[in-house]
């Protein structure tokens, strides 16, 4: 999971301020949920599902899932995900008052992300830490550190709730400050030690199903590829240094080193899967061996 720059793309016209379709649907949704007889009935939202919206989200996230960083389009059309769920809030089911969700944010550009179905939808999945398959995936989950701060109306200030939001928003926080990866297993772990920050990382791992077995295995494969390439860079660097006083051989091995370094750097391409893992591994390698800080690049 990495930071996604929402400003890298323009807001789709249909979601922009002044959009008549957006304004009309929002007014209809507010009226729908203001009616006690309709409050538990789903409102049909259409504006957010416009093709231009999905296209912009795909471009913004480089075709990858906003949560797990897996490439989506090769095998699935992908979901337009509501960060704050529009229809229902799962955490409130025990109260009998789980509907509606954040209906006024259904077509809010800042509430939309591009996601894979394994992160976004409920399905039975096993995790790397628990062998038994359980129903997981975000769906209508939106946990808070303090449930008393939950916002239920378009008339209330969502910023107060933001202070107790547990799930990491990849467009607002930098997930790389919260997560670290076990390069031998592909398992994702919390990096922060302070309780609230650690809880945010743990909640995000659980709700987004970031520990599911196939995903962990893919990260492990990526780690193996990166490790092998780092070894090739080390070997090329040793060969170059061994012949530093032999201009002809030094030039030859210098080209090999450059080629191997470029291959290693290709893992840092923004379109690559599991960039958070790659940055962790390559960042540590470059700092240790070449005194280069890749975060400053």
From TrEMBL:
<protein>
    <submittedName>
        <fullName>Uncharacterized protein (TIGR02646 family)</fullName>
    </submittedName>
</protein>
<dbReference type="InterPro" id="IPR013467">
    <property type="entry name" value="HNH78-like"/>
</dbReference>
<dbReference type="InterPro" id="IPR003615">
    <property type="entry name" value="HNH_nuc"/>
</dbReference>
